[in-house]
Amino acid sequence: MISQTSARLSPDEALALFQHGNLIDLGEQAHATRLRIANPDVVTYVVDRNINYSNVCAAQCDFCAFYRKPDDPEAFLLSNEEIYRKIRELLEIGGTTILLQGGLHPSLDFSYYTRVLSAIKERFQVCIHAFSPPEIVWMAHLYSRSVRDIIADLRSAGLDSLPGGGAEILSDRVRTRVSRGKCNSAEWLGVMEEAHRLGLRTTATMMFGHVETYADRVEHLRCLRDLQDRTRGFTAFICWTFQPRNTRLADREPTGAHEYLKTLAISRIFLDNFPHLQASVITQKEEVGQVALFFGADDMGGTTMEENVVRLAGTSHCAGEQRLCELIRDAGFRPQKRNTQYQWI
Fold it and tell me: Which of 47, 194, 203, 289 could make an SS bond with 281 (beta carbons 3.0 to 4.6 A apart)?
């Protein structure tokens, strides 16, 4: 059983829950925490679209089926007109947010990024949730500038918030095995701290079920909680399971719903300073995403009009706005559309 005291869960206690915790007990405690921290009657969602401006990447991540080398015949860089078309299609269905991400492109000028942001803001009323910490660190390295200056210039050009992608597991032992060429844990956290100091809100993520241990997952959560204690800049935490197909880790069995719900529940209990946790419908199917609303999640994430990275790894379950609302209502909650800042629309 989990202690019902109000004391903060320690890393050692979290590790014990991963090793020995009963799923139903964990769900009950996580749901009680969710009801206390977030609106108990409401489950939120966002109408969004993932736009990958490029798949060219200098990193070589074992878990990624999306990236291509610059000379690969499948490598691409979207034109501005292609990006505009995708945004128009999103706005036509009532969307509010684009997630704009690419790889670690080795040859783009920094002005490419600022021009794209400015051009989007000149033409559309849309929230730009863009450029994960590995991209920011890569830009700082490539253009010999500080992370703070890179973020400040992107913000001036139109950036509204940073996604938490590229975190995977915040353990350098794990990252050196599966994320070669990508930023280390301290650099990922440093980008988020700089963003928060500059007034940008961000999300935080964890992709698990590959080569990490339970202790690595706990260390990841501890790093996030400690940073949130300092800055209060994270809006939400999203965890999802590694999808192995078409990757260098294709021989690994996909992580199932039991492990996903256990990890989500422990995350909700441990991350007592995070206002929101998202369910992962994309990797876990609609039914598990719905059950996640009773294991700590108070948000169903996005309708994800377009999703490429997880799809190329063999699994992608997207749902439209009407279907998300049905799932939320059937679970006994009131659906509420939001923007990236978790403001209700």
Answer: 289
Q: Write down the pTM of the prediction.
A: 0.91
User: Among positive and negative, which fits the CA dihedral 70, 190, 283, 21?
Assistant: positive
What single-letter amino acid sits at 265?
Answer: A
Q: How far apart are CA 157 and CA 24, in angstroms?
A: 47
Q: What DSSP state is assigned to residue 293?
A: G
**Are 195 and 137 a contacting pair, CB within 8 Å?**
no
Neighbours of 92 (CB within 10 A): 8
The listed CATH number (1.20.1250.20, 2.60.40.1640, 3.20.20.70, 2.40.30.10) that belongs to domain 11-47+132-336: 3.20.20.70
- Per-residue pLDDT tens over the stretch 282-294: 777 789 999 999 9
Which amino acid is it at 143? Y
Cβ-based burial of 73 (10 A; exposed 0-12, middle 13-18, buried ≥19):
exposed
For the stretch 233-250, pLDDT in tens is 999 999 998 876 655 655
236 strand-pairing partners = 203, 276
Where are the chain's structural domains?
11-47+132-336
Burial group, residue 1, by CB count within 10 angstroms (0-12, 13-18, 19+):
exposed
